[in-house]
Amino acid sequence: MADVPKDLLQQIERLEKLFTVDAHMLKKVTDHFITELDKGLSVEGGSIPMNPTWCMGFPTGDETGTFLALDMGGTNLRVCEIILTDQKSEFDIIQSKYRMPEELKTGESDELWEYIADCLQQFVETHHNGQKLDELHLGFTFSFPATQDYIDHGVLQRWTKGFDIAGVEGENVVPMFEAAIAKRGVPIKLTALINDTTGTMIASAYTDPKMKIGCIFGTGCNAAYMEDCGSIPKLAHMNLPKDMPMAINCEWGAFDNEHKVLPRTQYDIIVDKDSPRPGQQAFEKMIAGLYLGEIFRLVLVDLHDNKEIHIFEGQNIDKLRKAYTLDSSFLSLVEEDPFENLSETGDLFSNKLSITTTRPELELIRRLAELIGTRAARLSACGVAAIAKKKGYKTCHVGADGSVFNKYPHFKQRGAVALREILDWPAKKSPKEEDPIEILAAEDGSGVGAALIAALTLKRVKEGNFAGILHPEKYK
């Protein structure tokens, strides 16, 4: 960076100090994380909801049957038909994706459920044209924080991922969904309402017995793991067997809403203040795909507006001033630019933002993207380490899904380095040696996982175990 002017060099150094999270800070965050996980399981509760899911146990690999899975995430609606075959841990899948229209995210509740029911009807008619169908059991992946007193029930705690529909928060979403389905006469029974993170863990465990934790690092972030019912004080009144396993949907995006430990910058504070839910999802706002591009954008606007720093001088940056105009895929492209002169990044700024960049500006832009991406990966490892330490896992696999984990350059490697620092593992004897706890690309949780949880729920009903099932008569 010898040819970078002094003012930009000083800014790069300032940003490095601002966004770098060292090993000491990672350990501090992890220790506080463990405390908050425990608090979420207590009767009093805490910021992290730690929602019991009523998914009770891992699959054996012997599950069979045909199931539908519906995945309602941030950007798309996906419908799958999954056939669990009699070959151990094998399945066939047919799927269709439907775009989630932006206007539905802030529209009327009825419009949302009608649209989802239309997509399901379309899927069934396309793939079962004219066939007389038995009732299809459905696993519905509802990837929003929901309180579940039963597996076929879910009260939305709060909207996330840019959704803000009146009249749904604090309500059970299942009757709304079922009413829209009934109106169309489609032979579908909602068997299990699940979270994508729980589905990720279950789907990954179906093919990998070492799998103990499921994570999502995408538009949002979250984790799930299996807890013993005896270690969930808030369920003590239900007198469940103490050693019975229960999948916990952590909803850890809400970690440190009190701002006690996360190393927030002034840019993180602005992201929070200007979001639809200030004071919520503190952890998510530092590591999830929805926010990485916005942090990056805010830094660049701030640098341009500081007259002592000469960046994008004399240029109209109106496009850059538009909130959320950049997402994490923009940062991915910056980090992936293979050319020494960063010409692809220059083209990106020119085409998307109508900004002409100099070589020194491109050096700063590249470093800033690396710093934001690295901080996200390193902080994400704190949550994984916290669950592993809480449960005493010395070795296990962690199934991770989501666009940031799968597509963001170096996210996996940066997270692995941070995990090593937090858990004080000895240096590897060879590059091929596996880490004791390894974060791997997950199986399809919102599809296969949802189908498996529906299958496990049906199996429980057949065995006469109705714990956590609101309408057992539905499963007959």
From TrEMBL:
<comment type="similarity">
    <text>Belongs to the hexokinase family.</text>
</comment>
<dbReference type="GO" id="GO:0006006">
    <property type="term" value="P:glucose metabolic process"/>
</dbReference>
<protein>
    <recommendedName>
        <fullName>Phosphotransferase</fullName>
        <ecNumber>2.7.1.-</ecNumber>
    </recommendedName>
</protein>
<dbReference type="GO" id="GO:0005739">
    <property type="term" value="C:mitochondrion"/>
</dbReference>
<dbReference type="GO" id="GO:0005524">
    <property type="term" value="F:ATP binding"/>
</dbReference>
<dbReference type="GO" id="GO:0005829">
    <property type="term" value="C:cytosol"/>
</dbReference>
<keyword id="KW-0547">Nucleotide-binding</keyword>
<dbReference type="GO" id="GO:0008865">
    <property type="term" value="F:fructokinase activity"/>
</dbReference>
<comment type="pathway">
    <text>Carbohydrate degradation; glycolysis; D-glyceraldehyde 3-phosphate and glycerone phosphate from D-glucose: step 1/4.</text>
</comment>
<feature type="domain" description="Hexokinase C-terminal">
    <location>
        <begin position="212"/>
        <end position="456"/>
    </location>
</feature>
<dbReference type="GO" id="GO:0006013">
    <property type="term" value="P:mannose metabolic process"/>
</dbReference>
<keyword id="KW-0067">ATP-binding</keyword>
<dbReference type="InterPro" id="IPR022672">
    <property type="entry name" value="Hexokinase_N"/>
</dbReference>
<dbReference type="GO" id="GO:0019158">
    <property type="term" value="F:mannokinase activity"/>
</dbReference>
<keyword id="KW-0418">Kinase</keyword>
<keyword id="KW-0808">Transferase</keyword>
<dbReference type="GO" id="GO:0005536">
    <property type="term" value="F:D-glucose binding"/>
</dbReference>
<dbReference type="GO" id="GO:0006096">
    <property type="term" value="P:glycolytic process"/>
</dbReference>
<dbReference type="InterPro" id="IPR043129">
    <property type="entry name" value="ATPase_NBD"/>
</dbReference>
<dbReference type="InterPro" id="IPR022673">
    <property type="entry name" value="Hexokinase_C"/>
</dbReference>
<dbReference type="GO" id="GO:0004340">
    <property type="term" value="F:glucokinase activity"/>
</dbReference>
<comment type="pathway">
    <text>Carbohydrate metabolism; hexose metabolism.</text>
</comment>
<dbReference type="InterPro" id="IPR019807">
    <property type="entry name" value="Hexokinase_BS"/>
</dbReference>
<dbReference type="Pfam" id="PF00349">
    <property type="entry name" value="Hexokinase_1"/>
</dbReference>
<feature type="domain" description="Hexokinase N-terminal">
    <location>
        <begin position="12"/>
        <end position="206"/>
    </location>
</feature>
<dbReference type="InterPro" id="IPR001312">
    <property type="entry name" value="Hexokinase"/>
</dbReference>
<dbReference type="GO" id="GO:0001678">
    <property type="term" value="P:intracellular glucose homeostasis"/>
</dbReference>
<keyword id="KW-0324">Glycolysis</keyword>
<dbReference type="Pfam" id="PF03727">
    <property type="entry name" value="Hexokinase_2"/>
</dbReference>
